[in-house]
Design goal:
Blueprint (H helix, E strand, L loop, with lengths): L1 H9 L7 H24 L21 H9 L36 H13 L4 E11 L5 E12 L6 E9 L7 E6 L6 E6 L4 E5 L15 H5 L6 E11 L2 E10 L7 E7 L5 E7 L5 E15 L6 E13 L5 E11 L10 H5 L3 H4 L1
């Protein structure tokens, strides 16, 4: 379907007015966005009559099964984490979370706040080559390859993201930009080269699919810690890694009513997350499949940043999953605000698009 839209743009009749071409371009951009969302929606299981929330274990794939698998020292994702150094969080304190009064009692919200910094804010900026494999229950695979850039305006605060699509050929040259705001709605734009159009897109649904994958926009850029009520359930092992197990419940309506997070105690990276729906059933699972130390800085400032380079999000009910690999990860490039602009969306530097 996407190929048809691009081809239609190439075959636009000459002599049409600028206004007509603009309107036609906007229509095609809307169809393109709809198609990207539909690719994920086609594989989802929809419950037309949600029941009242109630608590259940989530069945074979849920928390109890995870404890059983991980307690035996199996080859879980957490077993492949590199040793690394203590993660610098820019707080003047160690990575281990402390209570608000400075004692050693872990605080759930503080743990998650620091976990978000470790996961979403390593370095001042970042560039990576990202490969997404969208895999259906029958094993059918669609691949997307993109370059992702990120710049932090404030540690733990506003960020800017830029994405350039390399593959598939139907969307090569398409770019996507997000300005993430802490105190207001995020801003998003998409550039469709076939019609030379930059379109601002709605940002009011952070839980919608990210370019047709099983990840949401919020999964990519992070959810506000204050949007949920957090409870530290216990400390336990996931494979060979000591973890905090934290339960999070949304304060406002969301597509899940409960999330369980296994946070690595040393590096504070999320190793596994389980999402439960209004029926109390497990429906999405995130796993950090591989974690590597990425070197950055020079001389006395040289250090490593533990980075999740392979991750998976699975829709348990439909069997669809998205596997993501980050390659050529580089931190602290010195990206500027000018690198996250409409001009860059149309003409990104060649270093980004090779």
């Amino acid at each position: 379907m996407i190929r048809a839209f691009v081809l239609a743009g190439m075959l636009a009749l000459p002599g049409t007015s600028a206004q007509t071409r603009q309107q036609d371009g906007e229509r095609r951009a809307d169809l393109l966005l709809r198609d990207l969302r539909a690719q994920r929606a086609d594989s989802e299981v929809v419950d037309p009559a949600p029941m009242a929330p109630r608590r259940r274990s989530g069945g074979e794939e849920g928390e109890a099964a995870c404890r059983g698998r991980c307690g035996g020292g199996s080859a879980s994702p957490a077993n492949r984490i590199s040793a690394g150094r203590v993660l610098p969080l820019g707080c003047g304190r160690s990575a281990r979370a402390e209570g608000q009064d400075g004692d050693r009692r872990p605080d759930a919200a503080l743990i998650l706040s620091r976990s978000q910094r470790a996961f979403y804010y390593p370095g001042d900026d970042m560039k990576a080559r990202v490969t997404m494999q969208l895999i259906d229950s029958a094993g059918g695979t669609r691949t997307r390859v993109l370059t992702m850039l990120r710049r932090d305006e404030v540690e733990g605060g506003n960020q800017k993201y830029f994405i350039y699509f390399h593959e598939p050929g139907d969307v090569r040259g398409m770019t996507f930009m997000v300005w993430k705001h802490v105190a207001k709605e995020d801003e998003r734009w998409i550039f469709v080269p076939a019609v030379d159009l930059i379109r601002r897109i709605a940002a009011d649904d952070k839980r919608s699919s990210f370019v047709g994958s099983d990840f949401t926009y919020e999964d990519v850029s992070g959810r506000e810690v204050d949007d949920d009520v957090h409870t530290l359930l216990r400390e336990e092992s996931l494979g060979e890694r000591a973890c905090y197990l934290i339960q999070s419940e949304p304060k406002a309506s969301a597509d899940y009513v409960r999330r369980l997070s296994w946070i690595d105690k040393e590096h504070l990276l999320p190793l596994r997350e389980e999402y439960y729906d209004a029926q109390g059933e497990l429906f999405r699972v995130f796993s950090a499949d591989e974690i590597e130390d990425v070197a950055t800085g020079e001389g006395e400032k040289a250090h490593v940043l533990p980075t999740v380079t392979r991750r998976t999000m699975k829709n348990v009910k439909s069997g669809h999953r998205t596997e993501v690999t980050y390659a050529s990860v580089t931190y602290d490039l010195g990206l500027s605000d000018d690198d996250f602009s409409e001009r860059r969306m149309r003409r990104p530097p060649r270093a980004w698009t090779k």
